Every structure is written in C-alpha cells, then in structure tokens.
Amino acid sequence: MYRIDDTNDNHNETPSATEAMDSSMDFLFENFINPVEADLSEDQAYILAHIGIAFKIIAEKAQAYEDMVEGNGGDIYKN
Predict the structure, then answer these.
(1) pTM to 2 decimal places
(2) Are the CB atoms for 33 and 48 separated by under 8 Å?
(3) End-to-end CA distance of the chain
(4) How far apart (Å, rounded) are the C-alpha atoms in residues 33 and 45?
(5) What is the DSSP string of 52-74?
C-alpha cells in the first residue's frame, strides 16, 4: 500500500501539507502522467501544468496556515 508520507521515517507523524502534496504529485506523475506523456496534446499538457501549479499554491497556503496554527511563523502572522 502506498502511503502519502512514504518518505517520512516516523509513520506516526502526519506529513506537512507540502510533503503530502509533493508525495501525491510524485505518485500521480509516475503512475498516470509519465506513461501517457508522449500521447498528451499540447492543450492537455498545458492544462495539466496549470493544475500542478494550482495544487502547489494550495499546498503552500495550507502550509502557511499550518505554520501559523503551530506558531512557526514568528510575528509575521500576528495582527
């Protein structure tokens, strides 16, 4: 069974948002995108790239929220 946090040595620890996104995107690329990459149209490749960018932005925002909640952002998040 594939684990989202497969690179994490401590399997009892929940991966961060960016770790989970990176692992998920790696799995999707290796198992679904790479095998058909040569068959993708230019439009499909373009849209797929934009989906990847959107997912990275979502992960970065989730990571910023996690950092804020955990107090890892210093004073930058304080009003």
Answers:
(1) 0.71
(2) yes
(3) 43
(4) 10
(5) HHHHHHHHHHHHHHHHHHHTTTG
Instruction: State the pLDDT confidence band at 1, using cuts at 50, 70 and 90.
Output: very low
Residues in the chain: 79
The single-letter code of the amino acid at 57 is I
* Residue 76 to residue 68: CA distance in whole angstroms: 9
Q: In sequence order, what DSSP letters do the residues of 9-58 get, joined into one string? A: S-TTSPPPHHHHHHHHHHHHIIIIIGGGGGG--HHHHHHHHHHHHHHHHH
- Amino acid 71: pLDDT: 86
pLDDT one-digit tens code per residue, 24-62: 999 999 999 999 999 999 999 999 999 999 999 999 999
